[in-house]
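seq as requested:
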Amino acid sequence: MGKYWNGSLIFQSVLIFRQERKGRRVIWLLFMLAACFLFTSSFAGDPLDRKLSNRSLVDRFYQKRGGAAFWFSTGPVAQALRGQLVSLIDSCEQLGLDKYRYAFEPLKAHLRDNGLDPEVKIVYDRLYTDVAISFLKDIQCGAGMETMLSYDEFSLKYKQRDEAHLLEILDTITSGTSLQQAVDKLLPATEDYRILSAALKQAAGSGDLERSAKIKVALNCYRWISHFRLKNYAIVNVPSATLRYVQDDTTLLDMKIVAGAPATPTPRFAAHCDEVILYPYWNVPSSIAVKEILPALKRASGLLAFLNMQVIDKRGNIVDPATVNWSAYNKHNFPYRFRQSTGCDNALGVIKFNLTSPFSVYLHDTNMKPAFAADKRYFSHGCIRIEKPVELANYLLTDKLDDTFLAACLKDQRPVRIALKEPLPVFVVYVTVSVEAGQVVFYDDIYQLR
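struct tokens:
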């Protein structure tokens, strides 16, 4: 197509030049030829080079090398290096990866030099580098995480650091052995990760595709969280209905949670807990207000008093519910919101952990403590009720809460908002297999996502 338009433009320019020799026509000819050059230049380059996934990083790599070949440099070392990369990609299923994600066939087809001319050689050299970056990136950061989360506050923040680290790794590779060592250094060194890796090898060996797929997701998620190298963080895993607080790679707190019901699932995201609120109000989400509370009020007007709820107008004023004609409203014209007063009867309990995600979802205490005894703990509208709120708060707050805080049940207290000096990273993930007490445990796919 580029050549066709190039010829067409030249032909038109020649016709114009023959028909009109005036100065302005000459200028027009020059303009057309310049346009032809620019248009043709846009098609310059090998198709493989135009399809690189990490073009800017590849360019940076070769700029530092002065454009010199790396994978196709002279000597036997380069061929051994190419062979090691192809071998690693060929066996990458044991890392939870798919070799066809990395242009495996073109790499394999050009494993040997076979007298490639210099221009073609540098194209394939760049392709090898691009694939190596993608491969190492997925080992470092986990593959497919963008499909596993609805919101990610961390990956973009650490992108430049991660990319710089990958280029540093490439600079240290001088042989097939050093490439293998670079891969090994990127893998988490924890016992849980080793156990999951062994479980994948066993599942794959037995032909259990379903278990293999679940373990692959877990391995990639594990590597993704691990690579941030955070001092402390919390992981909420929805299928296991658990929360773990981790500090210096050690789990200090492990607790049950209640997650969203399948009809109102807990979203998957990575964000910060930036604030702890003592004696929080529960500002009822509008969907719950118009779908559940408003219809109930039309049948039993005393419900608000029973739930210790207030009616708030658009200006933030408290409205006497006895003055409201509930039958006059529906989900389309409802002008109020509901707020549950503070205290142990509050649906959020007496502690709320605010999260910086775009969802109206947070960690909180609950007035329904018996729910933690259930085997299947998926009852909420999406928020995450936690079993040990005081214990978690005391890891985050400077002024600690005493053991009587939950039992005090003070009513109608004004909320106390405590901003955290160091916000806590929180990962809400959906992984149907993990390691508990050294054993691989599988969980039900409650939301049918896997």
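The chain is about 40% helix and 20% strand.
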